[in-house]
Amino acid sequence: MLTAKKMFVSSRSMNKIISHNFHFRKFILGIVLSLVSFVTSAQESTIPLGTNPVLIEASKAIKNSSAISRSSAIDDTLILPFVDDFSRPGVYPFDSLWMDSSVFINTNYGDLPTTIGVATFDGLNQHGLPHNPAATQDSIGDNLTSRPIDLGVLSGDTSIWMSFFYQPQGLGDVPETRDSLVLQFRDTGGVWNNVWALQGKADTAFQRANIHVLDAKYFYRGFQFRFYNIATVNGNRDHWNLDYVILRRFGAPNDSILDNALIYPQKSLLTEFTAMPYPHYKSLGAQIPAAMKTDLTDTMYTINYGISSILPTIEINQNGSVLFSANAGSVQTGGSLTYTGYPIPLNGFTYPVLSFDSTDFQVKSFYTFTGSQSNLHNDTSYFTQTFKNYYAYDDGTAEVGYGITGNTDVELAYKFDVKMRDTLVGAQIYFNPVGIDVSNTLFQLVAWSAVDVNSNTDTRIRTTYDLKPGINDSINGFKTFIFDTAIVVNQGVVYIGIEQNEPTVQYGIGLDKNTDSRSKMFYHIDGFWHQSNVKGSWMIRPIFGARYPFTIGVDEVNNNFEFNLYPNPATDEITIQLPFEKKSKYQIINLVGEIIQEGDMTNSKTISVETISSGIYFIRITNENNFSSIKKFVIN
After folding, report:
1. CB neighbours of residue 127 within 10 Å
2. For position 14, what pLDDT does the model report?
């Protein structure tokens, strides 16, 4: 798959001669767009990303661990049932079930999945980089290989079935017909045999496949199965999502799962943003309730149950203390193979106003149920509500890239309703390679006080020239760009974005397809402003605050002061030594940016980490002057 996907073409000059009646204009545009496409080369498009920053960061610290390089002996054979719906935390397959690591475990790429979490096949390796950056032909991309399983004790049993759900594309890139997803079984002679395969096609609902295991050559101790994809392996493209893999004994192919499963993590309890500066939130005062949602709406998928009753609950925590808890009362699910949406009332809850300049709250959504469940990992979802120094509409993860090209000028302007007078310092921007290398291609960071599509006017208030995207290797893909002179902006609307030095080049801005902010996304090409037609959210975040540097997130590993951390790797505890006596705050952050532990400290502190799972983490120290430094460490 070498061409850009989902092209959108706009022409301001054409719109001028069309009636302002919306429905008539929409009808006319639908007829003539294809006829005028040759008039201009300007276009919006969604395009495959080049890398996966989450996997890049994860592999840096654990490239020599079992999460990356695995082996297995015949004595390690599993027994049935084999069940994985990829709802466990982490970005790699669960080590106790799978041999390899190239697929990406995530909650972002699935479009209406069956459970929370999918395994995504693409053109990247376990390090988040292309399998072959120079590839022009399709080849095998990712592998997902089971650990050996003992089927020898079941020889002659006719009740063994393999079951799984699959989806081409999802919220990612379309696999073409020459691409495919393949399932193989390994027989007694060590030969891998194809037992199921599907050609690539556009986004579809998750479908279920059932494979009856009958051939005697598979009934032995050490049997394995594996999935792999055929893709263009020079980028993050040609996506397939896999969910709920089961190998077990059961009487009929659709009797293998009994489950009610959450399907998505929540994003925010704020009505307008996924994140905002904490001082801006606090400045709302009596208007804070209007900035909060009145309920959290969750969605559950039911497999093989009839109508049943669940008790959905929301719990909001900070520093391990429960601030709020409420349930929705008894909710009736819609029955087997149906999605059920339900609200959990917040009962007027608002995030508390604290003395800090930044803070986080942990939100947990879960349900209780009295019936039997196939998997308890998918009953709960978490997210962290972030109040730092930036505004965001996105959820922090890009599924595809956004590209825009024109004949002359190309600008992107993102609208934000700022809640208080403050200093606009710069922006976090997610640039991702999408074909050609743009790391050294120049752009301008721009702020506007007004952009008007109807009058085709704008008011530019600051431009910082000749910045470069650089290499995207930060934890979540964002890099920070600072205006050469900070801007004091009043409460109200401000726009922030970029101007491309090379209008015919797609710079590749990350696009979050799990949120939709196109009503606030505007682009300027060939002399005219347009509103974006692409569903999603640009990953551009304006940064505010009178002082800089200050807390900006794990992706910016600033060293405003040095501190010591030992031991590293750690087991039960770590010790922090600071070069000053100032009161400070520490935060331990996981690879997806969630704060999982925090507290206060002074010059030296020993911190227990015995309750934290093994893996890679960051610790951020913020002193009383709001300067911060970050270090990476590993827990074994």
Report:
1. 18
2. 32
CA–CA dist 394, 404 (Å, integer): 19
CA atoms of 473 and 556, how far apart (whole Å): 11
pLDDT at 566: 86
Bridge partners, 501 (sequence order): none
Judge contact between 164 and 243, C-beta under 8 A.
yes
Query: Residue 280 contacts by C-beta under 8 Å, 6 or more apart in sequence?
Result: 391, 418, 419, 420, 422, 544
CA 6 to chain centre: 20
**CB 244 within 8 Å of CB 85:** yes
Question: What's the per-residue H, E or C state across 206-234?
Answer: CEEEEEECCCHHHCCEEEEEEEEEEECCC
Count the residues in the chain: 636
| Cβ neighbours for 579, distance < 8 A, ≥ 6 positions apart | 561, 562, 563
Spatial contact of 37 and 14, defined as CB atoms under 8 Å apart: no
584: confidence class by pLDDT, cuts 50, 70, 90: confident
- Structure-token pair, residue 532: 């974006």
The residues near 536 (Cβ < 8 Å, ≥ 6 apart) are 46, 399, 400, 402, 511, 512, 513, 515, 516, 517, 518
Distances (CA, A) of 252 to 158, 257, 502: 11, 11, 59
| Pairing relationship of beta strands 422-430 and 478-489 according to DSSP bridges | antiparallel
* 8 A C-beta contact, residue 450 and residue 458: yes
Which residues on neighbouring strands pair with residue 181, listed in sequence order?
Answer: 198, 229
E strand or H helix at 457: strand 457-467
Q: How confident is the model over 489-510, as pLDDT tens digits?
A: 999 999 999 999 988 888 889 9
Helices and strands in the chain, H and E counts: 5, 40
Helix, coil or strand: residue 459 = strand
Please give the full DSSP string across 243-294, using - where no structure is assigned: EEEEEEE-SSTT-S--EEEE------SBSS-SB--HHHHHHTGGGHHHHB-S
Phi/psi at 498 (5° precision): -135, 160
Helices (H), 37-74: 53-62
Amino acid letter for position 635: I
Residue 526, beta-bridge partner list:
none
Which residues are within 8 A (CB) of 501 and not within 5 positions of it... i.e. 6 or more apart? 441, 442, 443, 444, 466
How confident is the model over 263-284, as pLDDT tens digits? 999 999 999 999 999 999 999 9
Q: How confident is the model over 303-339, as pLDDT tens digits?
A: 877 788 889 999 999 988 999 999 999 988 887 888 9
In which residue are the tokens 């301001």 written? 12
Q: What is the rounded distance in angstroms from the CA atom of residue 295 to the CA atom of residue 269?
A: 8
Angle made by CA atoms 418, 421, 425, in degrees to the nearest 5: 75
Q: What is the pTM of this model?
A: 0.77
H or E element, residue 34: helix 22-36
Compute the distance between CA of residue 237 and CA of residue 502 in angstroms, rounded to an integer: 25
Closest CA to 304 of 260, 264, 263: 260
Check: CB of residue 346 under 8 Å from CB of residue 326: yes
- According to the 3-state scheme, what is the secondary structure of 300-344? EEEECCCCCEEEEEEEEEECCEEEEEEECCCEECCCCCEEEEEEE
- Number of neighbours of residue 95 by Cβ within 10 angstroms: 14
Token code pair at residue 529: 């402003």
- Residue 295 in tokens: 């309920």
Tell me the backbone φ, ψ of residue 535, rounded to 5 degrees.
Answer: -70, 130
Six token digits for residue 463 = 């431009």
Phi, psi of 315 (to 5 degrees): -140, 130
Whether the predicted pLDDT of 590 surpasses 70: yes
Query: Is 606:573 a contact under the CB 8 Å cutoff?
Result: yes
Q: What is the DSSP letter of 125?
A: -
